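Hey, I was hoping to borrow your eyes for a little while. No rush at all, and the record is pasted right below:
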Amino acid sequence: MDETTTEALIRRQDVERITGMSRSAIWERLNPSSRYFDPEFPKPVSLGCPNSVRWVKSEVSRWVHKKIEISRAKPATRAPRGAAIRGVRHG
C-alpha cells in the first residue's frame, strides 16, 4: 500500500448508510450459506475483540460503484407491447 494513502475503518452503521442496506442484509451478503451471499461484498476487519469489526471504507465504496456500473450496463428491459401486467386486467 502506498504510504500516502490513508485507509479509514468504518462501523457497520456507516456501511448501512453507504450501501442503503439493513444490518441483516449486510450479514446475509457475508454468509456463504445464505441465498443472498455475495463473495464480492467487502469482508469486515476484526479489531481483536469478540464482535468488534469494522469495514475498510474504500472497499465498501468500490463495491457500491461496481454495483452501479453493473446496473447501468444492463440494457433496459421492457415488457412486449400489449403484455398484461401481473394482477391487472385490461378491458
Remarks:
- DSSP finds three helices and three strands in the chain.
- The CA atoms of residues 78 and 85 lie 11 Å apart.
